[in-house]
Structures are given as C-alpha cells and as structure tokens.
C-alpha cells in the first residue's frame, strides 16, 4: 500500500486566530480521496505537532499545501525532504500563481483545485507512465519546465469526499472543550475585489454542495463537542440555497453553535438572518474592509458604507455577534480614514475587530499593480500575513501605515472599553479584548527589528505624508 503524507506548514507569525486555530480543509479532502483509492494517508498540521523527518522520508509521496505567508516554511520542509530522498508535491494558492518559484523546491506542483489533478497523478504513478495527461500539473522534464493545461473547476462538489479530520493525529486527540470544526458548503466568488486571490484560485462562479451532502457531514459531529465553522468565503452567497440548509438544520434539531464568513449584504434578507440565529449562528466574520467610500469603490468591493451600517444594526438586533475586518493601505486611504474607521468600529459596538494591512498577494489584481509600479519593498513571503507593511503606500509612509494598525487595535481594545463592557456583563467581549491586547504586545516584542527597518524607509511620493499627531498614542514600546 503506497503512502502519502500531507503537510500544512506552521504560520511564521502570531495572528488573531493563533489560539483558536482551524486547519484548512484542502489537505483533509485530498487525504480522504487518496485513502479511498487505496493509499495510506496521513495529515500533519505543523502548528499542532512537530514534523518527524525520518518518518516522512519513508512516505512514497509528501504533499505540502501553502498560502503566501507559509511559503518559506513550505520550501524549507520540501528542501529537507528532497535531500533525504523523498518525492515532494506542492499545492495551494501561492504556488498556483508563482509556480516556477515553487519548482525550485519541489518535484511537482499542482496548480488550482487539487482533487481531480491528484487523482490523475495517482493514476499515472500507479501505472508507471508519464505525467503529460495530469491536468494542472507542473514539473521538469529533461531539464525543461512543463506546465500541463488547467482543467475546468469541479462542478459537482458532492462528488468530493467528506473530509476525515481524524487523518490528523493531533486533530483526533483534541478531546477537551469544543473543537472548531471546519465545514465547506461552496466554492468560488463572483466578486472581483482587487486585493483578493480567491477568484484566481477557485473561479468567479459559485458552486454549491447539496443540502443533503452538507447535512450528512454535519451528522458526523456532536453539538456538545464541535463548534462548526462554515469555511466558505461567503456562506450566504445564494440566500435561497443557504435558507434551505438552515431549515434542514432546524428541522433535524442539530443544535450546533456555529460561525461563518458573510458579506454585509447578508442583511438584505431579514428572513435569512432570522434563520441563521435560529439554526445556531453565534458570530459572523464580515470583511467590511473600509468605511472610506472611495476605497470601497477602488477595491471593487460592491458595497457601500450605508450597507455596512445597516448590516451591523440588523445583526446586533438579531443578537448575532460580529467580527468586523478592516483593511488599511489603499491608495485612497489617509489618516482620516484610520481615525474614522476605529471610531466607526467602536460606535458600532462590534464584538471584535481586526485591523489589517493591505497585502499584495500573488494572484490578486493589487499584486500585479504594485509590481508594475515597482512599489514592493519586501519579497520575504513570511511578512505577507496582513500584519506587516511590504509595499509603498500612496498617502501614508510605510511606518505610519504600520502604526495605524497598532493605533486602531489599541483604541478598540483599550482597558476603558473593556470596563464599559464589564458593566454590561459582556464577558465574551472582555475575554477577546484581553487576548487581543496580549497578542499585540507579543507582536511588538517579536517585530522590533522589522519596525526598525521600516522606519528607515522614507516617503518617496510627493503626496505622501508622515503622521505625527498620534505617535504618542501609538507608542511602539510594548510596555506602553
């Protein structure tokens, strides 16, 4: 029986979900698929367990999935495994868009969705024939790089196996408390946000699993032990389809607590919001991105500030907690944008907020733009985690864009704000705020050298200015 081990490299830096980590589903689906066709399959989540290279070298094939920020670690793992004689295959968004770079470290690269490509690869492997008929595959042949044609995205998501999360030994050992359990019901996104690489990876057409398929997966889990996170980029992309699933969950009395990623337009359908709450929705993650109308228009978000405000009002009325995500660094952003954003987040009484830095991810329109304009400062992929400035902004100096993020987190998660929440007995909000302050202090300690380097980058653009009116509040001393 041949063996495949699939690895998710650990993230290089602290992030807001470090303590509540949920693995990506792709490698679990691939591992389940390979097990069903007769291979021994194992999944290793490096953030949960150390890699045993002596054991890994004995696998017939090692697959490594990587996003941009984990690419350096993925390459390091691949280099070591290949030096030990292992055959390494890389996949994921980053290597899909920078395939030639990835082939410097791996024997094979699968671009785009991997299920049908990996199945075809296994067919060729087992038959001992060449790789020319494997879709989405990149490899070297006689010293030349070959990129096989891309196959259309899978239309029937029900045909994909339900991921077996016990393929990870660390995942199966989690027994205490509720385990965050990812479930995916759709793929694709018709929107064209300039900073996002989802459409490049999964296409602009929504594809959905049937309600019966999702319900079959949910019944595998225990509401007392599993907190469901619907993994979709937009769980409510098709309101009628989502309502069908929610009604099925309610009728089956599954009683899960769950969360999902949605857009602000979810509240256009008040029945949908009501069903979400009744079916067990506890919190939604919404990419508000900006309260600067010009930035929203430039990023092609397809939403307005008025729609954002309406969404907050309706979701709070439904008693669904909101994790609002904002991004700074668009060409239209300046210090007024920063101040207005944190003011909005506080006034809206969001449960939690995440203030991120615009990051030029390979595969996004923004990446192509700043590369063409030669605005990239750092090519260290470790820094491409939405918490580090890696490019030259238009209206803010690089260091001030970084300080803007620090400032907003300190304002939103201040001790004064926590005291006000304590009066209203909002213990969950208080715990999140405490965690956020601790995380911010750790980030500052771990990034002293980076901040020093960033301070040496002086403004290069005529309309760029250095912020001076809030530096005392955004003191970079972690003890401040």
TL;DR of this structure?
It is built from 19 helices and 15 strands.
Task: Explain what the structure shows.
- The protein has 480 residues and is an alpha/beta fold.
- The chain folds into two domains: 3-139, Cobalamin-binding domain (Rossmann fold), CATH 3.40.50; 167-455, TIM Barrel, CATH 3.20.20.70.
- It has helices at residues 26-36, 53-56, 71-83, 93-97, 99-102, 115-127, 169-173, 198-202, 211-218, 239-251, 270-278, 293-298, 305-317, 335-347, 365-372, 398-412, 415-423, 427-446, 448-455, and strands spanning 3-8, 40-45, 61-65, 88-91, 108-110, 137-141, 144-147, 179-183, 186-187, 207-208, 226-230, 258-262, 281-289, 321-328, 352-357.
- The strands form three sheets. A seven-stranded mixed β-sheet has the order 2-1-3-4-5-6-7, sandwiched between helices.
How many strands appear in the DSSP assignment?
Answer: 15
Number of domains: 2
Overall morphology: globular
Gyration radius, in Å: 23 Å
Strand order of the largest sheet: 2-1-3-4-5-6-7
Strand content: 15-25%
Helices, by number, come to 19
Decide which structural class fits the backbone.
alpha/beta
The parts where pLDDT drops under 50 for at least 5 residues are: 466-480
Q: What share of the residues lie within helices? A: 25-40%
What is the CATH C-level name of the largest domain? Alpha Beta
Fill in the keyword field for this structure.
16% strand, Rossmann fold, 19 helices, six-stranded parallel β-sheet, TIM Barrel, single chain, 2 domains, 480 residues, alpha/beta, seven-stranded mixed β-sheet
